[in-house]
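The pair is quoted verbatim underneath.

:::
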Amino acid sequence: MYSNKEIIKVAYPIFLSYVAQNVVNMTDTAFLGRVGEVELGASALGGVFYMSLFMIGLGFSIGSQILIARRNGEKQFHKIGEIFNHGLVFLIVLAIAMILLVQSASSPLLHVVLKSPKVYQAASAFLDIRIFGLLFIFLNSLFRALYIGITQTKMLIWNAVIMASVNIVLDYTLIFGHFGAPKMGIQGAALASVTAEGIALLFMVIYTLRKIDVDKYNLRFTIRLHSDVIRHILSVSIYTMIQSFLAIATWFIFFIGIEHLGERSLAVSNIVRSLYMIMMMPILSFGTTANTLVSNQIGAGGADKVMKLTWQIIRLAIYVLLPVVAAILIFPKPFIRIYTDNLSLMSDTIYPLLVLTSSLFLAAVSSIFFNSMSGTGSTRVAMWVEVLCIIVYVSYMWWLIMIQRASVAWCWTTEHMYWIVLLALCYGYMRRGTWQKKMI
């Protein structure tokens, strides 16, 4: 059984890696909020569209992480490299295919679903550049899966610092045209993010070659794929790929619905989304920690301790969340001011932000149970749980936005609905205990 100190040791670097990714999104949003409401809203749509595609690659990496963690718990270290090496080739091919597909299909899709011509033009300009980051971020996620799976997460701190620092400097330079650079606006934000992800990946590669025992883990890059290995990885990963994509794709649908309420509603929701992702970082980091520690625990023969471990991680997450939630509820305006100086926009953002903040403790319990369930290897069950949650989520969202024409604050109660359904399904499954017989 893991101590609180051991859990924090794994979770803390993961948290900082999430900080880096969200600093990229937050910086884009904060700077574009000074450019205009159209750019602010368009970056939300373009960003969520991009993230929904990234989640497919991340889903593959999460599945790989579950397998890596299980082999690490079993001390079959040589099989870790086999999983990682095949994953590299698979994700390179997948990223290239998706980039080519999006370049040909994204503009017609956005033209059909978006109401505002200005938002459409800005979102298309953003995606034309941003989409090239898929290659870097796919491979970055696999390296993260490797380090999380073997519980050597300390290097993720440096990766986080590098990605965040490069993105902040380049955002300031390229969006506003400082230091002799061209003033690129929303395209500058996209280029800055792609460059930051590329440099972070380069660091990952160099660090791995210099600091990790590549012979112990059998880390050998090869273009030769064995179909049986890929099938084995996909037997776990295919469900996390579908589940991860659906989880973010519903946000894209949500933002399309919000866009139909007006450009101001879209701008408000982008600010709320960015702050929500900041508040979610402790939850996501403890969720990822639960995923890998549960898999390691089962691999080491401790399946009977999984439920106790899950509640232990939930308690730690809630302790970390308490000051975050208190700060937002008491002082919402300083946080909103990060993104805009427009007093009217700030005023419209307060209530939606408070509504969303009220869902965080529910999100913590639900997310960690969901990740523990995935860590048992029950990724197919996790996918169907996600599907059921999404059906409820989209139905409720449709009723609020398209029928009730509800306020933005009411629209964000969709998150409460999602987390309630997710918790009920995941807790019920984990209590049954049938997952203890799962072999991967």
About this structure: The chain has a mean pLDDT of 84. Residues 143 and 205 are 8 Å apart (CA to CA). The chain has 17 helices and no strands.
